[in-house]
Fold:
Amino acid sequence: MKLTIERGMLLKMLTHIQSVVERRNTIPILSNVKFDAPDENLSLNATDMDLDIVETVPADVEVHGTTTAPAHTLFDIVRRLPEGSQVKLESTGDSGSLVLTSGRSRFTLTCLPTEDFPILSSGELPYNFNISAGNLRDVIDCTRFAISTEETRYYLNGIYLHEAVKVKEPVLRAVATDGHRLASVEVPRPEGAEGMPGIIIPRKTVTELRKLIEETSEDIAIAMSDTKIRFSFEGTVLTSKLIDGTFPDYDRVIPTANDKVLEVDTKSFADAIGRVSAISTEKSRTVKLALANDNLTLSASSSENDLAVEELSVNYKAEEMEIGFNSRYLQDITQQISGPSARLTLADAASPTLVQEVGDESVLYVLMPMRV
Amino acid sequence: MKIRLLPPNMVNQIAAGEVVERPASAVKELVENSIDAGAGKIDIVLRNGGQTYLSVTDDGHGMTKEELSFSMERHATSKLPDDNLENIVTLGFRGEALPSIGSVSRVVLTSRAFGSQEGWQLRVDGGKKFESKPAAHPQGTSVEVRDLFYATPARLKFLKTERTEMNHTTDAVKRLAMAHPNIAFTLFNGERHILKVSCSQGDFISTRLDRVDAIMGNEFGLNALTIDAEREGLRLTGHAGLPTLNRGNASLQYLFVNDRSVRDKSFFGAVRGAYRDFLAHDRYPLLALFLEVPPDALDVNVHPAKTEVRFRDPGLVRGLIVSALKYALAGAGHRASTTVSQAALGAFQSPINKQLFVQSAQRANVTNGFPEASGYSPPGSATSALANLDHSPSAKAEIEIDGNRGTNENFGDYPLGAARGQLHETYIVSQTTDSIVIVDQHAAHERLVYEEMKATMNSEGVRRQGLLIPEIVELDEVAAEKIVEKSGELEEMGLVLETFGPGTVVVREVPALLGEINIQGLIKDLADEIVELDDTLSLKSRLADVCSTMACHGSVRAGRRLNGGEMNALLRQMEATPHSGQCNHGRPTYVELKLTDIEKLFGRR
Structure:
């Protein structure tokens, strides 16, 4: 294989690729990135056996061929090359090394045989649909903070994506929960998604996908079966295994009978929480909400009896009540609400509270209070 | 085959299977008889670890000729005077030991009763009794057992090496000796003298401490706290070691119930619970506790060898042990064990025999002398300090607080003295009226922060995070029932659960401090502990873990320069805070070197 490529283009690819590659591997080939130059394009491929990424860009290919080389090392090299320089990659089939030359720098990297590189077989992917990059970004942003990190409940370690019906409108709904809070977001069901199985997309896949689609404005093509999912756009193909588990019946925990409605200005509410919680030194920064007629008093205290109180004028007509929350959980939610005002629907100090943006029914958050 | 009654000898051999497990159990039974006979001195001699020969000689009240003959019959005993199993005041009562031993070995019993002029001897071979004949013997009884288990070859094959059997015997005798400080004991294996304790006069508690010292080692005596607590007719006395004196296993934890050595799981659990805050989970304190229980509140007729007992109210016993230990440990405040300073002293080496000028070799030598394992890195040695005269202390306390020198002088009267300086930006050196104290600033401050957090947690309660999706945990029915019984206690620690059908509990709220946790794992650990030890250790220790990690991050690190005011403030806080003598893992936070010890170092004493 022999080819020349612009440094910036290679770096962008390697940036995406290397974040899929785990830092420490028991199987050496998994540390490597596979180079494939079958025609006028160069494609790079990396995998951790659960997640597989392929990126293809045009390159100036002189000799076709394939090889594999250490991903993190390559990334570190290319990152340090001067901007705008041309990178020449050359590998000779028999010597088993990849030579990278750029300007007066020359690196020789040991390669591993391409045949050993694992291929994540995708199998049949019967469900195909497109979703706009913007919609997908929203879906991920609104839910991923609630993904559980507790390994024993592996079925919560991802976003649950499934088909649902809301007021006769078919929708695609994404849900994530860690047992303390829940986030749910809906987008109109894209064509081709009807009958799709409910799937759980693993946290790592979500993180990588979010990075990849940061800048794109194209539609993302999604293909899936009940064990795999594939996202393709702009020469990038991300294929991932899905979490094999049953997502809990989350519908039951979304409160429907909460009758106390509190409407707040999102920004001042978020800011007040941030200020008040600054005082608590403990790990679970508790913030207390005292509700009275059109008035909300936020308070927090520390173990040294320091006290913070802030009052907000809000829209609240129901009877007086007090409720405590983990301030970090509240902030996670308020950060995702882009609209000017948010609505909290409460029942009592021990029951789940529903949080929504006023005027946007498609996203909802459920939060369990904290008991003091 | 027809059902028939077994011959008496067979019955005795079967009983021997339970009662006489190994030479150690034979010795234990015989020594208990001697103790019950009111002996003042008991001599035990073994050969080959007791396999070929063992004898127990006492100066108790002895037996008459008739009693001698009866003693080898099954269920014949001089104990249980009023035929009442509810009120057992003697060590033995089953009347099984002698005939059992007699059925599996060759026994010679020689005894002269109190006030009698003649002694008698009885021989029994594998359960076969010979005529008793007159014999010379001082007042008391001696029992000689030869060829133990010759009549039961199967059991003989299961005996371990002489050394192992001897260790078991030594342990059994030690336990008996600890419980009976007013009796003198000697133990020989062949010609080798294993144990010798004389009976001492004086107050019972102090004689017992002497006895416990003699057996558990002098180190224990120096670092033991005295326990004396009473609750609802139960009295707990004895001695508990300071947390800084610890071992890798629980073999030096003794519990005596009414002077009977008992191995009780819930006792070990209670000890772990009481020491939980001071020791790493794999370190064990040393203790010898004596529990006095009214005989009717106790069932000793549980196990033929009587190593287990049952209490009428196990919760009360447990509560008493835990609270008594905690109380004593709290009283110990910042005391660290003297072994620590002994170890530190041992690490100092006199430079006399060394070539001061050969610096590199010299240093290697000295460093090797320090005990790495103790986790205490000494602040430079005498010689390296000499070699580098330009090394000045990190901070000098006196210079910093020159303005109020008067107060500084007074600090010398405090237990931890007045800070004189900081070395290597890690160790505070202070001077008291009669010693030098070296404080590990990080360990000490970490403990202070931790204690403060715990106090807050106790006063404000643990905050609980509700679960959106309650976690359902399946356990076996007994465990589920037990854990639900404890739900009140668990709720105080932030865990709310309730029963959810047989064998299942549902968890509704968890301690907010723990964040996202493996609830299934926690509940299962807890259930096991509650069933086994009747304690909720795993939840407590998880909360403590979080606190201690936070304490570690929130405390003064090694390498931070402190000024005199800060150093003295730290010392004063340590004095005021309970348990500040050790860090969360049982390592000491300071070492005290007495002036006398230092004088010894310089050969002045």
About this structure: Chain B is about 40% helix and 20% strand. Residues 8-197 of chain B form a domain with the Heat Shock Protein 90 fold (CATH 3.30.565.10). The longest strand of chain B covers residues 464-474. The interface with chain A takes residues 452-453, 456, 460-461, 463-469, 471, 509, 512-513, 515-518, 520-521, 546, 550 of chain B (CB under 8 Å).
